[in-house]
Amino acid sequence: MLIKKPADTLPSEITAPDVYRDRRRFLQTAALALGGMALPDWAAAGERLANVGKSRYDAAGEKLTPLKDISSYNNFYEFGTDKFSPAQTAGSLRTRPWSVAVEGEVRHPKTYAIEDLLKLAPLEERIYRLRCVEGWSMVVPWVGFPLSEVIKRADPTGNAKYVEFTTLYDPRQMPGQRDRVLDWPYVEGLRLDEAMHPLAILAVGLYGEVLPNQNGAPIRLVVPWKYGFKSIKSIVRIRLVENQPLSSWMKANPHEYAFYSNVNPAVDHPRWSQAKERRIGEFFKRPTLPFNGYGDQVAKLYTGMDLRKYF
Ligand code: MTE
Q: Alpha helices of the chain — where are they, by DSSP H?
């Protein structure tokens, strides 16, 4: 949920010292991560970060999960299957140079250097709930831009019905890929209309900072109404395709993981209930909401579909 549209942002808020400090920090870290890339390019991107602030609550009044939890309790199987390994080992991932190929059923395929992707659209803060299929959840202030911005520019052909995303494959940098826990590289997919929905973003930062490696640097998908595993990290390819992609989790266990994976408290995982979730940092569980609470905005994408069958 976007807490503040740029138009709602008062100049006094833009220049508030803490916001300014945050923005400067984002630029400085980004410049470092870019390995000495000239700052002026980033200064321009930074001007667009005006609404990256210090909000502690989302629009529904829910408390943001602290950065230390978001960046130390991760699922990133390329760096191990337990929650704590990614924060310890993802330093081996080199996020510069990095490029993302946009290809397939499009009139304008293009391979973007990450620096160019960052300039494609204004960066915004989006505070979203992330619900993991395992039953935990967080509230994360992402920095990113709508996925639709990339897809629109590629100009999909009439054959494009789905979008397939692929993570980097490099077992030297991603030691977890030496174990065959999944069929690497990690692949995920969305239907084209889901991918074009304004809530679906490509995230490049969180808490106003460049994305930590363990959270999917330098660029990852965030689809807040679906279970967290759809939000694929460290993307190198976005491919428009005619047929429904086969995701890594569908390949690994088709009985447990299907294509849509919309958050749905009424459909249990074969091995556990999905009715409740534990917010990281809280003791008592809370009810899970259909579409993770984004139903008003996304339920219409699934009109007429049996969501028990297409889980
Ligand atoms: N992307 C890749 N490439 N590899 C993964 O193992 N894990 C997924 C998703 N994206 C995963 C991935 C799962 S299960 C979740 S819950 C989220 O990333 C976790 O994102 P976070 O670590 O930023 O909270």
A: 11-14, 17-33, 39-47, 67-70, 85-89, 114-118, 148-154, 192-195, 248-252, 295-298
Output the ligand 1 site: residues, CB below 6 A.
74-78, 130, 132, 167, 186, 215-216, 228-229, 231-234
Q: Which two tokens stand for residue 268?
A: 């249990």
pTM: 0.86
Residue 302 C-alpha to ligand 1 middle, in angstroms?
24
Structure confidence by residue, pLDDT tens digits, 218-244: 999 999 999 999 999 999 999 999 999
Instruction: Write the single-letter amino acid at 176.
Output: G
Percent of the chain whose predicted confidence (pLDDT) is above 70: 82
Token pair of 294 as six digits: 């984004």
Quote the CA–CA distance of 230 and 238 in Å, as a whole number. 14
Q: Is 283 exposed, middle or buried (0-12, 13-18, 19+ CB in 10 A)?
A: exposed
What residue's CA is closest to ligand 1, atom 13? 229
Question: What CA–CA distance (Å, rounded) separates 188 from 311?
Answer: 15
Query: Which one, of 120, 105, 208, lies nearest residue 164 by Cα?
Result: 105
pLDDT tens by residue, 97-119: 999 999 999 999 999 999 999 99
The position carrying tokens 């109404």 is 225
CA distance 294 to 288: 11
Classify 48-248 by CATH class.
Answer: alpha beta
